[in-house]
Amino acid sequence: MTAIETVGLTKRFGDLEALADLSLTVPEGELFALLGPNGSGKTTTIEILTGQLEPSAGTASVLGHDPVSDPLAVRRAVGILPEREDPPSFLTPREYLEFVGTVRNLPDVTEQIDEWAERFEFREKLDTLATDLSEGERQRVMLAAAFVHEPDLVFIDEPLVNLDPLMQEQIKGHFREYCERGNTVFLSTHFIEVADELCTQVAIVSDGRLVAECNPQELDDERLLDVFRAEVGATEPATQQVSD
């Protein structure tokens, strides 16, 4: 079954065409990356697929729902972690995740909070105000919020920013395990090494256009970096991963 499908997805902001005729198919169970340089349309794509932004043309389906005509159905069905999103500074991680559980209609989120706090190693900070957490700790809380209701599909924009190398590896392992259970993870990233090492399907976008699709695990002598260079023509194709 298909988790995500777009046909001719286009978005214009005045004279700027942020997306141009983007057509994608993401099967269920895929660990998918939308890879491209900054400003290539990745975040715009996620915002359309999650019902936050209407396309200028084209159609999209997310878990069988239309994000334009029924955005609430999409948001109920998926998990979302936007780039540079933090928990409210005046709440503790526990309070924020309890709020998320209420919004998600979970009858009792206590067990899930303990499980995800343990998994993402912030259990000792559950009752610390978010304003007193490090950037990496806030990122881990937001990751827990995206997964706490065990959605079939999770959208994550730049998932490993602000995480130390050990936590990066742990999060990668969680993504793999989550997809092995039949769920789908849709990552947006400009880090080639993340897409190359982690994902089972990669779509490369440049200037809002789809320029290549591949499975990094099936590439022979050609590396994803080479594909990126050939299609995007960038001399500095990807920012190196920096941890706090």
Write a short abstract of this structure.
By secondary structure, the chain is α/β, with parallel strands linked by helices. Helix content is 33%, strand content 25%.
Kindly list the characteristics that best describe this protein:
disordered C terminus; globular; 6-stranded mixed β-sheet; alpha/beta; 8 helices; about 240 residues; 3-stranded antiparallel β-sheet
Structure description:
Residues 4-232 form the ABC transporter domain. There is one protein chain. This protein has 244 residues and is an alpha/beta fold. The protein has a single domain (2-232), classed as 3-Layer(aba) Sandwich (Rossmann fold). It is built from eight helices and nine strands. It has helices at 42-49, 71-77, 93-103, 110-119, 135-147, 165-180, 192-198, 224-232; strands at 2-13, 16-27, 31-35, 57-62, 78-81, 153-157, 184-189, 201-206, 209-214. Strand 6 (153-157), helix 6 (165-180) and strand 7 form a beta-alpha-beta unit.
- CATH homologous superfamily (4th level) name: P-loop containing nucleotide triphosphate hydrolases
The count of strands amounts to 9
- The helix/strand order is EEEHEHEHHHEHEHEEH
Strand order of the largest sheet: 5-6-7-3-8-9
Strand content: 25-35%
Please summarize the sheet with the most strands: 6 strands, mixed
Pfam family, one: ABC_tran
GO molecular function, one term: ATP binding
Family: Belongs to the ABC transporter superfamily.
Protein name: ABC transporter ATP-binding protein
